[in-house]
Amino acid sequence: MRTLPFPTRTAGARAPALQASRALPRRRWQQHAALAWLCAAATHTSAQADMAQLPLEQLMQMEVTTASRYAQTALEAPAVVSVVTAEDIRLFGYRTLAEVLGSMRGLYVSYDRSYHYLGNRGFATPGDYNTRVLLLVNGVRFNDNLYDQATIGTDFPLDLDLVERVEFVPGPGSAVYGANAFFGVVNVITRDGRQLPGPQVSVEAGSHGSAKGRFSLGGMDDHGGDWLVALTRSSSRGTDQYYAAYDTPENNHGVAQRLDYDRSTQLFARMRRDGLSLTLAHSERVKGTPTAAFSQTFNDPRSRMIDTTTRLAAEITRELQPSLSFTGRLHAGRYRFDGDYVYDYPPLTLNRDVGAGQWWGTELQWISTAIARHKLAWGVDYRRDTGIRQLNFDVEPAAQYLDSRRTGSAVGLYVQDEFALAPTLTLHTGVRWGKQSGSAGSVHPRLGLVYWWNPSTVLKLLHGTAYRPPNAYERDYAVDLPGGILSTPGLRPEKVRTTEIALEHAPTGTTRMLVTAFRSQVTDLLSLGDAAAPDRLVFSSARGVQVHGVEAEVEQRWQRGARLRLAWGWQHARDANASAPPLTNAPRQLLKLQWSDTLRLGAAGPGQPAQYAVEAIGVAARETLSHARLPGYIVTNLVYSRRIADVDLSLGVYNLFNRRYADPASYEIREDAIRQDGRTYRLKLTYAF
Fold it and tell me: 308: domain CATH number?
C-alpha cells in the first residue's frame, strides 16, 4: 500500500507546519555584555562616494523605512533596526539573503538541502517555511498567499548585486504590517539605474561545480528618471550526500548521488521617474532532493522540486501639501510549487504535488505633520487572493488524492502617531485592525517610548502584539492516507505579545553600543503532531511558548577604514507546558564577529587598496526532533577583494577551518540532522563597461 509523501505542502521539503510544533531551547551558557549598534552604509559604485569611509556619526543618521513605513533615522525609530548595506554584501561576500540575515544580531539560519529557514531569538521550527517573518521588497509584501513563505535562499528572486540594503526589524509588527509580521520584518531595498549605470557583467565560479553569471544594464534620462534591467543565471552541481538512516546495500549505502543540484534563473527590472516606480521580479529554481523527504524512495534521480514566482509592483509618491504626503502601491504576484516524489508501492510511482497561488493588492498611505509635534500616518492595505490551488496525484498509474481550490481576501486599516512629548522624549503609538478570509477580525496595538538620556545615549521601551492566521496549506491540505494530514477545522490564529527595552550609546563618533532585553509570549501556536488515527498527522493550535533573552552589540571604526563588530545574544525559549519536551532547534546563545581592514599593497593604485574581511558566526547547541543534542559550532569565513584596472575581484573562503556541523532536520526527513557543507570557495569578477 502506498505511503503518501509526508504531508506535502507538499513541496519536496515543504510541509511547513511540520515543524511548527517544535520550537526551541535547552541549556544555558551565560551572559555578559553591553554593546552596540550601527547601521553601516554604503554603495560600492564608481559613480558614488564610498560610504564605508564616512564618519560613524554620519552613518548613524542613515534613514531606515521599515520600522514605521516611513523614513526616520535608526536612532529615532521605535525599534532596534539591523541594516546590511550593499558595501557589506560586497565586503563579506554574501551569496544569498540567508547569509545576509544570518550575519545579523539575534538571527540564525538552518538548511535542509531544500530550503533555508530563519531562526529569530531562539525560536525556529524546522521546515515552517519562515511563515512568522514578513518579507518585503521595496516595502511590498513578498510572502506568497498559499504557504505564507518568506524565501531567503537560492529561491529568493533577486540577485544580491541588485540590493542596496537589507533592513530587519525584530519583534511583532502587525500594528504596522498585519499578518506574518510575527517575530520580525525583513525589507530588501533594491538598487536602481543611478547606482548601476551602463552595462555590467559579473561572473563567478566556486566549489561543488557552482557557477553564476549576471548581466545588467542601467541608465538615466535628462529628467531625473532612471531604469535598470538585470538577468542572472546560476547553477550548482552539489556534492553526493550521505545519510546514515539509509545506510543499507539496497539504498546505495546511504549515499544520494547527483541529487543536491540547484539551478535558477532571475530577471529583474525597475524604472523610476517623477515619483513613480515600476518593478518586475521573476525567478525559476529547480532543486534536487537528496534527503528523500516525505518517505520517498532513496536516491532516485527524478526526485526534485521547482519554485517559480513572478512579482509586479507600481508605486507613486506625491506631496499633496507642504505638510501632507501620499504613497500608493499596486502589486500583483504569482507563485507555483511543483514537487516530484518517487515511491515504490510497488510499482515504482511518480507522485506530483502542486501548489499555486495568484493575488493582487493595493496599499494607500498618508503622512501628515500639520499638527504641531505630531507626525501622523494612516492607511489601508488590501489583498485579493484570486486563486489558491493544491493538487496531489500519481502520474502513472493515474490516481488523485487532493484537489483543493479557494479564493479570499485580506484587509487592514491602521493609524500611527509620532508625538514629541518633549525635546528629549518621543511617544510612538499605533493600532491596526485586520481581517483575512476564514478568520475573525483582529486589533493589534503598539507602543514605543524613545528617550534621549543625553546627546549620545538613547533609551527605548517597546511593546507590541502580532498575529498569524492559518494559511491555505494549514487549512486545506488534507490527505487521509498513511503519512498524510487529517483535516482540522477550527484552527485559531497564532498570537504573540512582546516587550523590549533597549539602550543605545555612542560615547564617541567612532563607537556604537547597544544592549537590549526582551520577553515574548506566544499563544495558540500552530503545530503539527500525531493524530488519534494511526500513522496520521494533524494540525493543532493549542500550544504556548515563552521566550526571553538579552542581546548586545558593539561596533568600532578606525580612521583608515578598519572596522570591528561584535554581537552576542542569550535567549531561552520553552514550552508554556512545563512538562513538555524541550523545543527543537533553539540555541541558547548566538555570537557574531566581523573584522575588516584594507591592505596597502605596492601593486595597488592610489585609492585602490585591497580589502579583507573575516566573519565568525557561532551557534550554541540545539536539540533535534528525537531530542538528540547537536553540539554548538563556530563557522569562519574569509573574503579578499580588490579592484584591478576596471575589474572588481572577490575571493571568498567559506567555513575556513572546515568545521563539521549539522542542522536539525524536519518531520518529513528521516535523518535526524542534516550535515552542512565543509570548506568551500568562490571567485567572483565584476566588470562595468
Answer: 2.40.170.20
What sign results for the dihedral spanned by CA atoms 521, 524, 530, 532? positive
412: containing domain: 16-688
Other residues' Cβ atoms within 10 Å of the Cβ of residue 367: 22
The pLDDT tens digits for 257-316 are: 999 999 999 999 999 999 999 999 999 999 999 999 888 899 999 999 999 999 999 999
C-beta of residue 331 within 8 angstroms of C-beta of residue 309? no
pLDDT in tens, 162-215: 999 999 999 998 889 988 899 999 999 999 999 999 999 999 999 999 999 999
What's at 318, amino acid-wise? R
Long-range contacts of 243-249 (CB under 8 A, 24+ apart): 243/290, 243/291, 243/292, 243/298, 243/670, 243/671, 244/671, 245/670, 245/671, 245/672, 246/292, 246/298, 246/299, 246/670, 246/671
Number of Cβ within 10 Å of residue 607's Cβ equals 7
In a domain, 9, yes or no: no
The whole-angstrom separation of Cα 77 and Cα 83 is 13
How much is the pLDDT for 388?
Answer: 97
Q: Let me know if residue 599 belongs to a domain.
A: yes
Exposed/middle/buried for 601, CB within 10 Å: 0-12, 13-18, 19+?
Answer: exposed
The count of C-alpha atoms lying within 13 angstroms of the C-alpha of 465, restricted to the half-sphere facing its C-beta, is 13
For residue 169, CA distances in Å to 166, 290, 294, 416 come to 10, 34, 34, 17
Torsion over CA of 447, 453, 454 and 459, rounded to 10 degrees? Answer: -50
| Residues contacting 288, CB < 8 A, separation 6+ | 238, 258, 259, 260, 261, 262, 303, 304
DSSP 466-514: EEE---HHHHH----STT-EE--TTPPPEEEEEEEEEEEEEEETTEEEE
**542-576 burial string, b = 16+ CB within 10 Å, else e?**
ebebebbbbbbbbbbbeeeeebebbbbbbbbbbbe
- In the chain, the largest separation of any two C-alpha atoms, in whole Å, equals 77
Distances (CA, A) of 463 to 46, 93, 171, 521: 43, 35, 9, 12
Whether 553 is covered by a domain: the verdict is yes
Would 27 be classed as within a structural domain? yes
Omega prior to 631 cis, within 30 of 0:
no
Domain count, the chain: 1
Do residues 632 and 619 make contact, with C-beta atoms less than 8 angstroms apart? yes
The pTM of this model reads 0.90
